[in-house]
Amino acid sequence: MIILVGVIDKDAWCKDNRKNLYVLDVNGLYRIPYPLGRAEALVDEDVMPTFTDDLNLNPQTQRITLGFDPGRKQILISVSNIQDGTNTNYIYDLVTQGFFPEKYPDDCSPYSLHFYNADEPEYRQLLVGCSDGYLRIFDDSAKNDDDGTAVPVAIDSYVLLGPTQIGRNVDTDGKTREFTFLTAGGAAGGSIGDSSDLDYEIFFADNAEEIIEMQEAAERDPLFEDTVSAPGRSYRETLKGSGVFMGVRIGNETAGETWGIERVTVEVDDAGRTKKL
What we know:
Elements: E1 13-15, E2 21-25, E3 28-32, E4 40-43, H1 51-55, E5 62-69, E6 74-81, E7 87-93, E8 98-102, E9 110-116, E10 125-130, E11 135-136, E12 144-145, E13 153-154, E14 157-165, E15 172-183, E16 198-205, H2 208-216, E17 224-228, E18 234-238, E19 242-243, E20 245-252, E21 261-273
Antiparallel strand pairs: 1-2, 2-3, 3-4, 5-6, 6-7, 7-8, 9-10, 10-11, 12-13, 14-20, 15-18, 15-19, 15-21, 16-17, 16-20
């Protein structure tokens, strides 16, 4: 099958360090292997059904840009509304082949992206030209965001682990007994800092779609929620919940803090057939 791909806007493309071409069109993100291979769909309506709806591409009202960051091995897809700065962004990770949504302050939304291949390694950065006229970079050591003011902006970041099927099959519930959270951090005297506190929320449902909807709701209502105090590394909690599927949302939205998780382990028992209404 031949895939016809058209670039949605003049800056909606970039190349990686192997000269592969990445193109954003109205149907999704595509890679054209170097030197001129057949276009490969990296994400489209089959892979991520709401991808093009979320971006709502319109070159007449938006700045649509792609940029490659070789240091992080990532493609940044940025779509910014010219009138008010509202923006929708995705990171495509070339290592994990995963997509991660991001949102930046409206007052300094991305308008252009360019990797500056400087002679000095510390200056080799993906430069982000912003709507307020400033050039910005991504700083891994920063614990707050920048919106062009002197007031630190908290970085709200989270990950959803799951949805995970904990029942033996779609007609059987699983019942959790104990959760263990292992926070990230370096050994004593090491150079890697420990994680700050992290918040968790745990959801149970009869299907995977419901887990996604529950954790994306404006007013989330998890069965369990609490804070893991860190450092402390390992945190064990008895939490008994049941369902066919489970999702664990972990994150932090406190200014001046950062977090990391190495793993979450769960002990699960068979709870019998699901009670359908």
